[in-house]
From TrEMBL:
It comes from Leifsonia soli. The keyword Ribonucleoprotein applies. GO terms for cellular component: ribosome. Keywords: Acyltransferase, Ribonucleoprotein, Ribosomal protein, Transferase. It comes from the Bacteria. The keyword Ribonucleoprotein applies. Gene3D superfamilies: 3.40.630.30. Residues 11-149 form the N-acetyltransferase domain. This is Ribosomal protein S18 acetylase RimI-like enzyme. One of its GO terms (molecular function) is acyltransferase activity, transferring groups other than amino-acyl groups. InterPro entries: Acyl_CoA_acyltransferase (IPR016181), Bact_Acetyltransf (IPR050832), GNAT_dom (IPR000182).
Length: 149
């Protein structure tokens, strides 16, 4: 059986790819600002991998893995997991997560974390189904500067 999408770590993004990412961002957050230069800078950042899911060559989903050293070990954080509405339910988000988990294992990361709003029950179920566990934790955020991006 053919996979629903081809998963890859993006090393370049064409103009068409960037347009696809721009269409995906509002599905993540109504307040997320899009910046092409920031997207391209992500590709060159040594601690960041942008995973993309392609169907017929077109990006229909994405997720990011941030990897960083801490005194307690190498850690990873998954962010911005999103799949186009027309492609949901086909296992694409699962494939993105499995690819991220595989890279985290290859890198010997001590932990791989992600956060999700409690209202996203289906996303939480997916995360748990690939091995993420709920933690008794409080997510806190500080905004050093107010900006649109």
């Amino acid at each position: 059986m053919k996979a629903a999408a081809d998963i890859e770590v993006a090393s370049t993004l064409s103009s068409t790819d960037l347009d696809a990412v721009e269409r995906l961002l509002p599905l993540l957050s109504s307040t997320a600002g899009y910046d092409r230069n920031r997207m391209l800078a992500m590709l060159d950042h040594p601690g960041l991998n942008l995973f993309v899911a392609r169907v017929g060559g077109e990006i229909v989903g994405m997720a990011t893995l941030a990897t960083f050293p801490l005194p307690t070990g190498w850690r990873g954080h998954v962010d911005d997991v999103v799949v186009d509405d027309t492609q949901r339910g086909k296992g694409i988000a699962r494939s993105l997560l499995v690819a991220i988990i595989q890279l985290a294992r290859e890198r010997g990361l001590r932990t791989l974390d992600l956060t999700s709003r409690p209202s996203r029950a289906s996303a939480i179920h997916l995360y748990e189904s690939v091995g993420f566990e709920r933690r008794d934790s409080v997510l806190m955020r500080f905004r050093p500067t107010e900006f649109n991006n």
